[in-house]
TrEMBL record:
Keywords: Amino-acid biosynthesis, Cytoplasm, NADP, Oxidoreductase, Proline biosynthesis. It holds the Pfam family F420_oxidored. Its EC number is 1.5.1.2. Catalyzes the reduction of 1-pyrroline-5-carboxylate (PCA) to L-proline. NADPH binds at N56. It is found in: Cytoplasm. It catalyses: L-proline + NADP(+) = (S)-1-pyrroline-5-carboxylate + NADPH + 2 H(+); L-proline + NAD(+) = (S)-1-pyrroline-5-carboxylate + NADH + 2 H(+). This is Pyrroline-5-carboxylate reductase. Residues 163-267 form the Pyrroline-5-carboxylate reductase dimerisation domain. It comes from the Bacteria.
Amino acid sequence: MATNITFIGAGNMASAIIGGLIDSGIAPDSITATSPTEDMLRPVSQRFGVNTQTDNNAAICNADVVVLAVKPQIMRDVCEAMQETVLQQRPLIVSIAAGLDAETINQWLGGGHAVVRCMPNTPSLVGYGASGLFANQAVTSEQRDTAAQMMEAVGIVEWVEDEALIDAVIAVSGSAPAYFFLMFEAMEEAAVKLGLPADTARRLAIQTALGAATMAQRSEDTPATLKQNVMSPGGTTERAIQHMEDAELRKTIADAMQACADRAQAMSKELSAG
């Protein structure tokens, strides 16, 4: 792992990664977080004991890795203001900003940089994240390892060799926590109609999802086989699954994920043109 890591931005996702890094054994004094005001930095400083700085250029002057964790809408201004310092230092650039491709980030920073584009998801906040990563051609194998180790501190990592596939990552993991939250919501509402108290229904649905995910993660069987194992001929589960199949749940999910990927592609074009 690189010696010095600077986070440009100190919001929830940056804080999650910082916490994961410290839990994995990275020294707090090797991490710096930046934000425009001390008030915004106080929580991360008090919680993790890392260095803080309101001047981005001062914060990156000794950085081996710079993590860009600001809103996409202000990323261009932030990058261009750091351009001279980044050109001198040539750190690994890791962007966790949604919708901005690696080449856009590279050009806003002056060009010729090693850039890893990362698409994490919100379960990273509790250490169960899933991140898709893409590295441009300037990224060395050592830098790939550094980026992977950093994101593995908050979950699993999957590399894609074609950056266009980041849109698919967004559809299958970046936006997907909301799909499951919708499922919990729908199951709770249905269970209440069946007579269960809402809090009981919610706990049962969430625990069942946790158990099913853990089984799928630990098993060598495919999800299709695991599903079949729960279904007895003529039984309750078979009846429920058949109803979902008849209602074309698979098509609904596929269409939703395509809509998600399409919107991700459109947002990337909009932000890169801004």
